[in-house]
Protein backbone atom coordinates (compact mmCIF):
# COMPACT_ATOMS: atom_id res chain seq x y z
CA UNK A 1 0.00 0.00 0.00
CA UNK A 2 1.03 3.64 -0.37
CA UNK A 3 1.69 5.64 2.77
CA UNK A 4 3.19 8.98 3.78
CA UNK A 5 6.46 8.41 5.65
CA UNK A 6 8.32 10.72 8.00
CA UNK A 7 11.96 10.63 6.81
CA UNK A 8 13.52 13.58 8.67
CA UNK A 9 12.78 17.17 9.61
CA UNK A 10 10.97 18.89 6.71
CA UNK A 11 11.19 15.65 4.72
CA UNK A 12 8.21 13.37 4.14
CA UNK A 13 7.60 11.07 1.19
CA UNK A 14 5.03 8.67 -0.22
CA UNK A 15 6.34 5.12 -0.35
CA UNK A 16 5.16 1.57 -0.78
CA UNK A 17 4.94 -0.23 2.59
CA UNK A 18 3.45 -3.58 3.62
CA UNK A 19 -0.34 -3.60 3.73
CA UNK A 20 -1.99 -3.06 7.10
CA UNK A 21 -3.44 -6.36 8.32
CA UNK A 22 -5.47 -7.78 11.20
CA UNK A 23 -2.86 -8.71 13.82
CA UNK A 24 -5.10 -9.39 16.81
CA UNK A 25 -8.67 -10.69 17.10
CA UNK A 26 -9.91 -7.25 18.20
CA UNK A 27 -8.37 -5.43 15.20
CA UNK A 28 -10.00 -4.08 12.07
CA UNK A 29 -8.46 -2.83 8.84
CA UNK A 30 -9.98 0.34 7.39
CA UNK A 31 -9.56 1.55 3.82
CA UNK A 32 -8.97 5.27 4.26
CA UNK A 33 -11.22 7.64 2.33
CA UNK A 34 -10.17 10.87 4.05
CA UNK A 35 -7.19 11.71 6.26
CA UNK A 36 -6.28 15.25 7.25
CA UNK A 37 -3.04 17.11 7.81
CA UNK A 38 -3.21 18.44 11.35
CA UNK A 39 -1.39 21.39 12.87
CA UNK A 40 0.16 19.02 15.40
CA UNK A 41 1.59 17.00 12.49
CA UNK A 42 3.72 20.07 11.82
CA UNK A 43 5.50 19.74 15.18
CA UNK A 44 6.81 16.41 13.90
CA UNK A 45 7.36 17.65 10.36
CA UNK A 46 9.56 20.45 11.69
CA UNK A 47 11.65 18.03 13.75
CA UNK A 48 10.45 19.41 17.09
CA UNK A 49 9.55 15.96 18.50
CA UNK A 50 11.23 12.58 18.83
CA UNK A 51 9.31 11.13 15.86
CA UNK A 52 11.19 8.17 14.42
CA UNK A 53 12.19 8.06 10.76
CA UNK A 54 10.18 5.52 8.80
CA UNK A 55 6.90 6.02 10.68
CA UNK A 56 3.62 6.51 8.81
CA UNK A 57 2.03 9.85 9.74
CA UNK A 58 -1.62 10.72 10.17
CA UNK A 59 -4.02 10.69 13.11
CA UNK A 60 -7.17 12.27 11.60
CA UNK A 61 -8.68 9.30 9.79
CA UNK A 62 -11.95 7.93 8.42
CA UNK A 63 -12.86 5.28 5.91
CA UNK A 64 -14.59 1.99 5.16
CA UNK A 65 -14.04 -1.18 7.19
CA UNK A 66 -12.33 -3.73 4.95
CA UNK A 67 -11.58 -6.59 7.37
CA UNK A 68 -12.25 -7.47 11.01
CA UNK A 69 -10.73 -9.90 13.48
CA UNK A 70 -12.61 -12.81 15.02
CA UNK A 71 -13.13 -10.83 18.23
CA UNK A 72 -14.88 -7.90 16.54
CA UNK A 73 -18.66 -8.16 16.77
CA UNK A 74 -20.05 -4.61 16.65
CA UNK A 75 -18.63 -3.07 13.50
CA UNK A 76 -18.70 -4.96 10.23
CA UNK A 77 -17.07 -4.95 6.81
CA UNK A 78 -18.52 -2.11 4.75
CA UNK A 79 -19.20 0.23 7.68
CA UNK A 80 -18.19 3.84 7.21
CA UNK A 81 -16.30 4.87 10.34
CA UNK A 82 -14.54 7.80 11.98
CA UNK A 83 -11.49 6.84 14.03
CA UNK A 84 -10.58 8.92 17.09
CA UNK A 85 -6.94 9.91 17.11
CA UNK A 86 -6.77 8.43 20.63
CA UNK A 87 -6.15 4.67 20.60
CA UNK A 88 -7.79 3.25 23.71
CA UNK A 89 -8.36 -0.21 25.14
CA UNK A 90 -11.80 0.49 26.56
CA UNK A 91 -11.23 -1.42 29.81
CA UNK A 92 -8.49 0.28 31.88
CA UNK A 93 -9.28 2.58 34.80
CA UNK A 94 -9.06 5.71 32.64
CA UNK A 95 -11.06 4.33 29.72
CA UNK A 96 -13.99 3.25 31.91
CA UNK A 97 -14.04 6.82 33.27
CA UNK A 98 -14.22 8.17 29.70
CA UNK A 99 -10.65 9.47 29.76
CA UNK A 100 -9.62 7.68 26.55
CA UNK A 101 -6.85 10.19 25.75
CA UNK A 102 -5.02 8.75 28.75
CA UNK A 103 -5.51 5.01 28.21
CA UNK A 104 -3.18 3.05 30.49
CA UNK A 105 -2.71 0.03 28.24
CA UNK A 106 -2.40 1.21 24.64
CA UNK A 107 1.01 2.92 24.70
CA UNK A 108 3.77 0.32 24.46
CA UNK A 109 6.11 2.65 26.38
CA UNK A 110 3.89 2.33 29.44
CA UNK A 111 2.87 5.98 29.60
CA UNK A 112 -0.73 7.19 29.53
CA UNK A 113 -2.16 7.88 26.10
CA UNK A 114 -1.68 6.51 22.59
CA UNK A 115 -2.44 7.73 19.09
CA UNK A 116 -2.11 6.87 15.42
CA UNK A 117 1.10 8.08 13.79
CA UNK A 118 2.24 10.38 16.58
CA UNK A 119 5.52 10.90 18.42
CA UNK A 120 5.75 9.34 21.91
CA UNK A 121 2.20 8.00 21.63
CA UNK A 122 2.95 4.35 20.91
CA UNK A 123 4.37 2.69 17.82
CA UNK A 124 1.12 2.64 15.83
CA UNK A 125 1.16 3.50 12.14
CA UNK A 126 -0.75 6.55 11.03
CA UNK A 127 -3.56 6.75 8.53
CA UNK A 128 -2.09 8.93 5.80
CA UNK A 129 -2.09 5.74 3.81
CA UNK A 130 -4.41 3.53 1.81
CA UNK A 131 -5.07 1.16 4.73
CA UNK A 132 -4.96 1.47 8.53
CA UNK A 133 -4.93 -1.15 11.27
CA UNK A 134 -7.31 -0.16 14.08
CA UNK A 135 -6.69 -1.82 17.48
CA UNK A 136 -9.69 -2.51 19.77
CA UNK A 137 -11.80 -1.71 16.73
CA UNK A 138 -15.22 -2.12 18.32
CA UNK A 139 -14.32 0.47 20.95
CA UNK A 140 -12.40 2.88 18.71
CA UNK A 141 -14.72 3.10 15.69
CA UNK A 142 -17.61 5.54 15.36
CA UNK A 143 -20.08 4.33 12.74
CA UNK A 144 -21.26 7.06 10.35
CA UNK A 145 -24.22 7.30 7.97
CA UNK A 146 -23.69 5.29 4.79
CA UNK A 147 -22.56 6.90 1.55
CA UNK A 148 -20.32 9.89 0.94
CA UNK A 149 -22.54 12.71 2.15
CA UNK A 150 -20.87 15.26 4.45
CA UNK A 151 -17.49 13.52 4.11
CA UNK A 152 -15.61 16.76 4.73
CA UNK A 153 -17.62 17.41 7.88
CA UNK A 154 -17.40 13.90 9.33
CA UNK A 155 -13.65 13.74 8.73
CA UNK A 156 -13.23 16.45 11.38
CA UNK A 157 -14.63 14.09 14.05
CA UNK A 158 -11.37 12.21 14.50
CA UNK A 159 -9.61 15.13 16.17
CA UNK A 160 -10.06 18.83 15.56
CA UNK A 161 -13.82 19.23 16.08
CA UNK A 162 -13.80 17.26 19.37
CA UNK A 163 -10.56 19.00 20.37
CA UNK A 164 -12.03 22.45 19.74
CA UNK A 165 -15.15 21.46 21.67
CA UNK A 166 -12.91 20.10 24.45
CA UNK A 167 -11.09 23.43 24.70
CA UNK A 168 -14.38 25.20 25.35
CA UNK A 169 -15.38 22.50 27.84
CA UNK A 170 -12.05 22.79 29.69
CA UNK A 171 -12.67 26.51 30.08
CA UNK A 172 -15.89 25.59 31.96
CA UNK A 173 -18.04 27.45 29.46
CA UNK A 174 -21.69 28.23 30.17
CA UNK A 175 -24.25 29.52 27.65
CA UNK A 176 -24.07 33.29 27.38
CA UNK A 177 -20.36 33.47 28.19
CA UNK A 178 -17.95 35.51 26.10
CA UNK A 179 -14.94 33.62 24.76
CA UNK A 180 -11.50 34.50 23.38
CA UNK A 181 -9.67 31.88 21.31
CA UNK A 182 -5.93 32.28 20.79
CA UNK A 183 -5.01 30.76 17.43
CA UNK A 184 -7.11 30.53 14.26
CA UNK A 185 -5.62 27.30 13.01
CA UNK A 186 -8.02 24.38 12.53
CA UNK A 187 -8.40 23.65 16.26
CA UNK A 188 -8.90 27.30 17.16
CA UNK A 189 -11.53 27.71 14.45
CA UNK A 190 -13.26 24.57 15.73
CA UNK A 191 -13.21 26.02 19.26
CA UNK A 192 -14.85 29.19 17.94
CA UNK A 193 -17.42 27.14 15.98
CA UNK A 194 -18.11 25.08 19.11
CA UNK A 195 -18.54 28.16 21.29
CA UNK A 196 -21.03 29.65 18.83
CA UNK A 197 -23.02 26.40 18.69
CA UNK A 198 -23.06 26.23 22.48
CA UNK A 199 -24.47 29.73 22.87
CA UNK A 200 -21.56 32.11 23.39
CA UNK A 201 -22.59 35.76 23.55
CA UNK A 202 -19.41 36.81 21.76
CA UNK A 203 -16.35 35.01 20.40
CA UNK A 204 -13.01 36.68 19.66
CA UNK A 205 -10.39 34.82 17.60
CA UNK A 206 -6.77 36.00 17.73
CA UNK A 207 -4.34 35.37 14.86
CA UNK A 208 -2.38 37.33 12.27
CA UNK A 209 -3.17 35.43 9.07
CA UNK A 210 -5.85 37.13 7.00
CA UNK A 211 -7.24 33.93 5.51
CA UNK A 212 -7.76 32.37 8.93
CA UNK A 213 -9.27 35.52 10.40
CA UNK A 214 -11.67 35.69 7.46
CA UNK A 215 -12.85 32.17 8.26
CA UNK A 216 -13.37 33.20 11.88
CA UNK A 217 -15.52 36.11 10.74
CA UNK A 218 -17.50 33.80 8.43
CA UNK A 219 -18.80 31.83 11.44
CA UNK A 220 -19.79 34.91 13.41
CA UNK A 221 -16.63 35.41 15.47
CA UNK A 222 -14.82 38.73 15.87
CA UNK A 223 -11.32 38.53 14.31
CA UNK A 224 -8.41 40.08 16.23
CA UNK A 225 -5.22 40.66 14.23
CA UNK A 226 -2.29 40.64 16.65
CA UNK A 227 0.03 42.03 13.99
CA UNK A 228 -2.04 45.23 14.17
CA UNK A 229 -1.59 45.70 17.89
CA UNK A 230 -1.65 44.05 21.31
CA UNK A 231 -4.55 41.55 21.18
CA UNK A 232 -5.26 41.96 24.90
CA UNK A 233 -5.68 45.70 24.46
CA UNK A 234 -7.89 45.17 21.40
CA UNK A 235 -10.22 42.80 23.26
CA UNK A 236 -10.28 44.93 26.41
CA UNK A 237 -11.26 47.94 24.33
CA UNK A 238 -13.96 45.95 22.51
CA UNK A 239 -15.43 44.77 25.83
CA UNK A 240 -15.32 48.11 27.60
CA UNK A 241 -12.42 46.98 29.78
CA UNK A 242 -14.26 43.91 31.09
CA UNK A 243 -12.38 41.18 29.25
CA UNK A 244 -13.96 37.79 28.54
CA UNK A 245 -15.42 35.00 30.64
CA UNK A 246 -13.51 32.13 29.01
CA UNK A 247 -10.32 31.65 27.04
CA UNK A 248 -9.08 28.83 24.83
CA UNK A 249 -5.40 28.35 24.00
CA UNK A 250 -5.14 26.59 20.63
CA UNK A 251 -1.53 27.35 19.65
CA UNK A 252 0.84 25.46 21.92
CA UNK A 253 4.53 25.57 22.60
CA UNK A 254 5.49 27.14 19.25
CA UNK A 255 3.53 30.34 19.85
CA UNK A 256 5.24 33.45 18.48
CA UNK A 257 4.78 37.18 18.21
CA UNK A 258 4.11 39.17 15.05
CA UNK A 259 7.82 39.32 14.23
CA UNK A 260 8.08 35.53 14.31
CA UNK A 261 9.96 35.34 17.62
CA UNK A 262 8.94 32.15 19.40
CA UNK A 263 7.65 32.45 22.96
CA UNK A 264 5.81 29.46 24.44
CA UNK A 265 4.43 31.60 27.28
CA UNK A 266 2.96 34.31 25.06
CA UNK A 267 -0.56 33.00 24.50
CA UNK A 268 -0.92 31.65 28.04
CA UNK A 269 0.04 34.94 29.67
CA UNK A 270 -2.11 36.97 27.31
CA UNK A 271 -5.09 34.79 28.18
CA UNK A 272 -4.45 35.33 31.89
CA UNK A 273 -4.53 39.07 31.16
CA UNK A 274 -7.73 39.07 29.11
CA UNK A 275 -9.89 36.57 31.00
CA UNK A 276 -11.95 38.04 33.82
CA UNK A 277 -11.32 37.33 37.48
CA UNK A 278 -12.72 33.85 38.34
CA UNK A 279 -12.91 33.02 34.62
CA UNK A 280 -11.70 29.82 33.00
CA UNK A 281 -8.97 28.93 30.50
CA UNK A 282 -8.85 25.73 28.46
CA UNK A 283 -5.51 24.71 26.96
CA UNK A 284 -5.60 22.31 24.00
CA UNK A 285 -2.49 23.60 22.23
CA UNK A 286 0.30 21.02 22.51
CA UNK A 287 3.00 21.46 25.18
CA UNK A 288 5.82 18.98 25.73
CA UNK A 289 7.73 17.74 28.80
CA UNK A 290 10.96 18.43 26.88
CA UNK A 291 11.56 20.64 23.85
CA UNK A 292 15.22 20.45 22.78
CA UNK A 293 14.52 22.84 19.90
CA UNK A 294 13.34 25.65 22.16
CA UNK A 295 15.11 29.00 22.24
CA UNK A 296 15.89 29.11 25.97
CA UNK A 297 17.05 26.61 28.56
CA UNK A 298 13.88 26.75 30.63
CA UNK A 299 11.63 25.94 27.69
CA UNK A 300 13.96 23.12 26.63
CA UNK A 301 12.99 21.41 29.88
CA UNK A 302 9.29 22.01 29.26
CA UNK A 303 9.19 24.73 31.92
CA UNK A 304 7.58 28.10 31.30
CA UNK A 305 7.75 31.59 32.82
CA UNK A 306 4.03 31.60 33.47
CA UNK A 307 2.35 34.63 35.06
CA UNK A 308 1.12 32.58 37.98
CA UNK A 309 0.85 35.52 40.35
CA UNK A 310 -1.76 37.28 38.23
CA UNK A 311 -3.48 33.95 37.50
CA UNK A 312 -3.75 33.24 41.24
CA UNK A 313 -4.72 36.77 42.20
CA UNK A 314 -7.58 36.74 39.66
CA UNK A 315 -8.84 33.40 40.94
CA UNK A 316 -8.87 31.91 37.46
CA UNK A 317 -9.10 28.25 36.62
CA UNK A 318 -7.11 26.38 33.96
CA UNK A 319 -7.62 22.87 32.63
CA UNK A 320 -5.46 21.21 30.01
CA UNK A 321 -4.77 18.14 27.95
CA UNK A 322 -5.64 16.17 24.86
CA UNK A 323 -9.28 15.64 24.01
CA UNK A 324 -11.03 12.44 25.00
CA UNK A 325 -12.53 12.18 21.51
CA UNK A 326 -15.04 9.46 22.38
CA UNK A 327 -16.57 11.71 25.02
CA UNK A 328 -17.81 14.01 22.25
CA UNK A 329 -17.73 12.38 18.81
CA UNK A 330 -21.18 10.76 18.84
CA UNK A 331 -22.92 13.98 19.80
CA UNK A 332 -20.88 15.98 17.30
CA UNK A 333 -21.65 13.42 14.56
CA UNK A 334 -25.33 14.00 15.20
CA UNK A 335 -24.91 17.78 15.12
CA UNK A 336 -23.29 17.38 11.69
CA UNK A 337 -25.98 15.00 10.45
CA UNK A 338 -28.71 17.44 11.49
CA UNK A 339 -26.93 20.38 9.87
CA UNK A 340 -26.30 22.29 13.11
CA UNK A 341 -22.50 21.88 12.83
CA UNK A 342 -20.60 22.42 9.57
CA UNK A 343 -16.90 22.03 10.40
CA UNK A 344 -16.00 21.63 6.72
CA UNK A 345 -16.08 25.42 6.38
CA UNK A 346 -12.32 25.52 7.01
CA UNK A 347 -11.32 23.00 4.30
CA UNK A 348 -9.22 24.70 1.64
CA UNK A 349 -7.77 21.75 -0.29
CA UNK A 350 -8.69 18.17 -1.17
CA UNK A 351 -5.69 16.30 -2.56
CA UNK A 352 -4.50 12.83 -3.44
CA UNK A 353 -1.95 11.10 -1.23
CA UNK A 354 0.84 11.65 -3.78
CA UNK A 355 0.43 15.40 -3.29
CA UNK A 356 0.92 15.20 0.48
CA UNK A 357 4.65 16.13 0.64
CA UNK A 358 4.06 19.41 -1.20
CA UNK A 359 0.94 20.05 0.87
CA UNK A 360 2.89 19.65 4.12
CA UNK A 361 5.35 22.31 3.00
CA UNK A 362 2.65 24.78 1.96
CA UNK A 363 0.68 24.24 5.17
CA UNK A 364 3.83 24.58 7.29
CA UNK A 365 4.82 27.75 5.42
CA UNK A 366 1.36 29.18 6.21
CA UNK A 367 0.84 29.98 2.55
CA UNK A 368 -2.23 32.11 2.03
CA UNK A 369 -5.36 30.03 1.56
CA UNK A 370 -3.92 26.79 2.98
CA UNK A 371 -6.18 26.52 6.02
CA UNK A 372 -7.00 22.79 6.12
CA UNK A 373 -5.88 19.96 3.84
CA UNK A 374 -7.84 16.74 3.41
CA UNK A 375 -6.04 13.88 1.70
CA UNK A 376 -7.93 11.17 -0.18
CA UNK A 377 -5.73 8.08 -0.66
CA UNK A 378 -8.40 6.58 -2.90
CA UNK A 379 -10.84 8.10 -5.34
CA UNK A 380 -12.13 11.62 -4.68
CA UNK A 381 -15.76 10.65 -4.17
CA UNK A 382 -16.68 13.04 -1.40
CA UNK A 383 -19.67 15.34 -1.21
CA UNK A 384 -20.28 18.16 1.25
TrEMBL record:
<dbReference type="Pfam" id="PF08240">
    <property type="entry name" value="ADH_N"/>
</dbReference>
<dbReference type="GO" id="GO:0008270">
    <property type="term" value="F:zinc ion binding"/>
</dbReference>
<dbReference type="InterPro" id="IPR011032">
    <property type="entry name" value="GroES-like_sf"/>
</dbReference>
<keyword id="KW-0862">Zinc</keyword>
<dbReference type="InterPro" id="IPR013154">
    <property type="entry name" value="ADH-like_N"/>
</dbReference>
<dbReference type="InterPro" id="IPR013149">
    <property type="entry name" value="ADH-like_C"/>
</dbReference>
<dbReference type="GO" id="GO:0016491">
    <property type="term" value="F:oxidoreductase activity"/>
</dbReference>
<dbReference type="InterPro" id="IPR036291">
    <property type="entry name" value="NAD(P)-bd_dom_sf"/>
</dbReference>
<keyword id="KW-0560">Oxidoreductase</keyword>
<dbReference type="Pfam" id="PF00107">
    <property type="entry name" value="ADH_zinc_N"/>
</dbReference>
<feature type="domain" description="Alcohol dehydrogenase-like C-terminal">
    <location>
        <begin position="186"/>
        <end position="286"/>
    </location>
</feature>
<keyword id="KW-0520">NAD</keyword>
<dbReference type="InterPro" id="IPR002328">
    <property type="entry name" value="ADH_Zn_CS"/>
</dbReference>
<protein>
    <submittedName>
        <fullName>Theronine dehydrogenase-like Zn-dependent dehydrogenase</fullName>
    </submittedName>
</protein>
<comment type="similarity">
    <text>Belongs to the zinc-containing alcohol dehydrogenase family.</text>
</comment>
<keyword id="KW-0479">Metal-binding</keyword>
<feature type="domain" description="Alcohol dehydrogenase-like N-terminal">
    <location>
        <begin position="25"/>
        <end position="138"/>
    </location>
</feature>
Amino acid sequence: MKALIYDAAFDVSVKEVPDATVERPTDAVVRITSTNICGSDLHMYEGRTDMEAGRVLGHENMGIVEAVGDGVDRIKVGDRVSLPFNIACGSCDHCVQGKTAFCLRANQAGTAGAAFGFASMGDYAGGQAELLRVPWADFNSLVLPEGTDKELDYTMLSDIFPTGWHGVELAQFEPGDSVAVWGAGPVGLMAAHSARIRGASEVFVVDQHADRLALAASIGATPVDFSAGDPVEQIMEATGGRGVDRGVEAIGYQAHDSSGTEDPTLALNQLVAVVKATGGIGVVGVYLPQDPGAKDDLAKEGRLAFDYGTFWFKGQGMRTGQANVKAYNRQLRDLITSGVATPSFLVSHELGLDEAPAAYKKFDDREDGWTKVVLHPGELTTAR
